[in-house]
Amino acid sequence: MFSRLLFLLGTAVPLVAQVSPTASLVGTVTDPTSAAVPSTTITIVNTETGLERTTVAKVDGAYQFTQMPVGVYRVEATA
């Protein structure tokens, strides 16, 4: 019995969590004179899956998207 239990424990398949790769996108919205454009709505759309995320640029024009699935994105800005 002990040898059978030891064999079963030795052949157990380890469970490993599957982690999908993610990416981040950071940027700054500026006008042609390089001045920051605050409160701009930034939308990104994954061109393959259609996943869409939106954020608003901060006072300094900065925006950030985190934990996005890796892929190709279209970036749109609306002031």
Task: Write up this protein.
The protein is mainly beta and 79 residues long. Helix content is 11%, strand content 41%. It has 1 helix and 5 strands, in the order H-E-E-E-E-E. It has a 3-stranded antiparallel beta sheet, with no helix packed on it. A hairpin with a 5-residue loop joins strand 2 and strand 3. The termini are far apart. The N terminus is likely disordered.
Quick take:
By secondary structure, this protein is mostly beta strands.
**Alpha-beta classification:** mainly beta
The Cα radius of gyration reads 23 Å
As residue ranges, the low-confidence spans are 1-11
> Strand arrangement, largest sheet?
3-2-5
Query: Percent helix among the residues?
Result: 10-25%
Total DSSP E strands: 5
Observed structural traits:
5 strands; two-stranded antiparallel sheet; 79 residues; 41% strand; disordered N terminus; 1 helix
Please write out the topology.
Blueprint: H1 2-10, E1 22-28, E2 41-46, E3 52-56, E4 62-69, E5 73-78
Antiparallel strand pairs: 1-4, 2-3, 2-5
